[in-house]
Amino acid sequence: MGIALIWCLALILIKWITSKRRGAISYDSSDQTALYIRMLANSEIEVSVSARNVRRLLSFQRYLRSSRFFRGITVPNSSNILDDDYNGQAKCMLEKVGNWNFDIFLFDRLTNGNSLVSLTFHLFNLHGLIEHFQLDTMKLRRFLVMVQEDYHSQNPYHNAVHAADVTQAMHCYLKEPKLSKSLTPWDVLLSLIAAATHDLDHPGVNQPFLIKTNHYLATLYKNTSVLENHHWRSAVGLLRESGLFAHMSLENRQLMESQIGDLILATDISQQNEYLSMFRSHLDRGDLCLENANHRHFILQMALKCADICNPCRTWELSKQWSEKVTEEFFHQGDIEKKYHLGVSPLCDRQTETIANIQIGFMTYLVEPLFGEWARFSNTRLSQTMLGHLGLNKASWKGVQREQSGSGDDVDPAFEEMDSDILPQEPRLS
Ligand SMILES: *[C@@H]1O[C@H](CO)[C@@H](O)[C@H](O)[C@H]1NC(C)=O
Ligand SMILES: *[C@@H]1O[C@H](CO)[C@@H](O)[C@H](O)[C@H]1NC(C)=O
Ligand SMILES: [Zn+2]
């Protein structure tokens, strides 16, 4: 096909898709001519056609794949989602889906990149949600496929595998005795949906980046929990589109949407100190009462926060892979910021940062305080296991740090700076 014809087709498709889709965002760093942040909002977008832009066509594949039309064709059969040579091995892994050592990377390979769909569908089944809420399994699967496809597989970290990992961790927390005996099917349903969708359509750059590049989402959400609001609204969009709960009353659907929002918005790391001090004072007063729905939902917010940043609490083999991926994403952002003279964000400069420094700071200021309180709330073997891995992993990174620098620098100075961006509320957590 000639280039002109390809472009003609592409423009027709883009026009057609943008007229239907709203809120999807993507970021294309390969463009040489300008800082190019693609926005497919309600409004039409301008696509300038030039030979140089042909490259961009590739990045529209996601939209081709995830458009309604193509979705309808590619939704896997409920019985053949795992229908390749790895079928047996993946099914076998699912029998141990509640193990803290669950290897989500291996599971993703065995399911041919469908870890989020396979795992979440399995958990819906396991928790009896399909029966209890009389869900149509085809609609459920279609919903999960749409969710999985709206994650950006080109993000090193914020992709569908991270979402699957968080969902798996959430499942482990839901099984903890304190929670499992008081949770209703409704709570479990919301928790799993929120976990699976909590980073939906993540652009692979952070909020400060969206703010300083005047991204329309920053404007839309007034510079506050910009990404989290977008993840939530994207989830709501897919819930409505799938019709998964069309048989429920409007009142229940609205309640569901707002409660999923409360869960997803709690994953904004810049709000961590507020959630943590609330959690801490409840634990100090010993007044948490899980028969109370509000208290239960607060605990589910804390559980999802834990699930979201539990990477350092996994075994070293898993934890190390996550660390590399998240650093790659940070450094990629830093490269773009350098290239366009936007000022490099904290933790994003590959010239001055190291994985070890970033991880030690992350563990010290965010993960340890959160999991310390979680272990007070749920003092179980799982909590002790997580704290055990956390300690060992931190020691390993300190070993790496010593090897690299020879200096006694313990904590990344960038986390001091980061406080102003990411942790604006308070002085240090102890
Ligand atoms: C779906 O699965 C059923 C049962 O295994 C099979 O008979 C059918 O051919 C499959 N349909 C498609 C479209 O793959
Ligand atoms: C968001 O932040 C930008 C950059 O600091 C600022 O120009 C803009 O006025 C802010 N918007 C709101 C609604 O606060
Ligand atoms: Zn996340």
From TrEMBL:
Keyword terms, alphabetized: cAMP, Hydrolase, Metal-binding, Signal
Composition bias type Acidic residues, residue spans: 409-420
Cofactor detail note: Binds 2 divalent metal cations per subunit. Site 1 may preferentially bind zinc ions, while site 2 has a preference for magnesium and/or manganese ions.
Active site: 158
Enzyme Commission number, as recorded: 3.1.4.-
GO biological processes: signal transduction
Sequence positions that bind AMP: 158-162, 199, 308, 359
This protein's name: Phosphodiesterase
Organism of this sequence: Aquila chrysaetos chrysaetos
Catalytic activity: 3',5'-cyclic AMP + H2O = AMP + H(+)
Pathway assigned to this chain's UniProt record: Purine metabolism; 3',5'-cyclic AMP degradation; AMP from 3',5'-cyclic AMP: step 1/1
InterPro entries: HD/PDEase_dom (IPR003607), PDEase (IPR023088), PDEase_catalytic_dom (IPR002073), PDEase_catalytic_dom_sf (IPR036971), PDEase_CS (IPR023174)
Binding residues annotated for Zn(2+) 2, in chain numbering: 199
Superkingdom of origin organism: Eukaryota
Limits of the PDEase domain: 82-404
Signal peptide positions on this chain: 1-19
SUPFAM superfamilies: HD-domain/PDEase-like
Cofactor(s) recorded in Swiss-Prot or TrEMBL: a divalent metal cation
GO MF assignments: 3',5'-cyclic-AMP phosphodiesterase activity; metal ion binding
Membrane spanning stretches: none
Family according to the record: Belongs to the cyclic nucleotide phosphodiesterase family. PDE7 subfamily.
Enzymatic class: hydrolase
Region of interest (Disordered), ranges: 398-430
